[in-house]
Specification:
InterPro entries: Xyl_isomerase-like_sf. This is Xylose isomerase-like TIM barrel. It comes from Caballeronia concitans. The protein has 286 residues and is of the alpha/beta class. It has one domain: TIM Barrel (Alpha-Beta Barrel), CATH 3.20.20. 45% of the residues lie in helices and 14% in strands. It has nine helices and eight strands. The protein has an eight-stranded parallel barrel, surrounded by five helices.
Length: 286
């Protein structure tokens, strides 16, 4: 049976308040566990950090995704070795390069895919600004070259990066859905054409929230149709601290990101449950 695991970003647990008050790291992990998340996203380029965090997550019975930012093919090798030792659902790879041409991307993607295949560890390439995948149209060209490329979809970057106007036009919607067709995992926040991260608890942002929920639902449905029956889909709630989070003149955030992360978790789980119910009805009626 296919599963959804909803993770919380450890970066998103940073508060960065002007008064310097932060949650102790042990408390952060306990909060994530007690709130009902399935796990967390863990930076794996720092071995000591990854070892300590995954040990604690394992004690809580949680799982994780391994995050990395390679600039070369060889940079992925130690990450794979760490995952082979410590475990992970998959490797989330942000390609920390900014090639001018598709041709420059090919040896990197081929090398990373070869390492993933040889190790048996799934590697998903994240859509993200200031990375190889920074531009929507450039990434669509990558998919023409690698039609089966596995992506982690953080579509907020494309909405703000290409300044999508409201209402979303058919062409922009089609481009996003083409990205979602290749997504094997998701990082979740809601953007507008002006802001990378809107406060989803504010009523006047509801139209953008509903748009992203519709896109995620489409991405979930497409994943369910192509993934094996025992596959696991991960959704990482990634509501980041300032400067992602908007602040007032005193440096304090305009909303409670932790409460919004819980809200996002519940919305995504509800969506998954409704998709399962529809699929079960279709099977009964067939």
């Amino acid at each position: 049976m296919q599963q959804l695991r909803v993770y919380q970003s450890l970066w998103a647990m940073e508060r960065r308040r002007p008064d310097g008050l932060e949650w102790p790291f042990d408390e952060q992990l306990r909060m994530i566990h007690n709130a009902g998340f399935d796990g967390a996203g863990v930076r794996f380029f720092d071995y000591a950090f990854a070892r300590d965090v995954t040990r604690q997550l394992k004690e809580f019975g949680m799982t994780w995704e391994a995050q990395c930012y390679p600039r070369t093919v060889e940079d992925l090798i130690p990450i794979i070795e760490h995952v082979q030792e410590l475990g992970a659902d998959h490797i989330n790879l942000q390609p920390d390069v900014r090639p001018y041409s598709i041709e420059e991307c090919i040896p990197l993607i081929e090398g990373w895919r070869r390492l993933a295949h040889d190790s048996g560890i799934p590697v998903h390439i994240e859509t993200h600004r200031n990375r190889m995948t920074t531009d929507l149209l450039f990434t669509l060209r990558l998919l023409e070259c690698f039609p089966d490329l596995r992506l982690t979809g953080d579509i907020s970057h494309y909405v703000v990066g290409r300044e999508f106007a409201w209402p979303i036009c058919e062409e922009d919607d089609g481009h996003i859905r083409r990205i979602l067709d290749n997504c094997w995992g998701f990082h979740g926040r809601v953007a507008s054409r002006e802001q990378i991260q809107l406060q989803i608890s504010f009523a006047h942002h509801e139209e953008w929230l509903n748009l992203f929920l519709a896109w995620w639902e489409y991405g979930f449905e497409r994943w369910r149709a192509r993934a094996p029956d025992d596959a696991v889909l991960t959704f990482l709630c990634e509501l980041g601290p300032k400067e992602y989070a908007m602040t007032d003149r005193n440096g304090y955030e305009l909303s409670d990101r932790w409460e919004e992360a819980l809200m996002l978790k519940d919305l995504v789980r509800k969506m998954w449950s409704e998709l399962e119910s529809r699929a079960n009805r279709s099977r009964r009626e067939a």
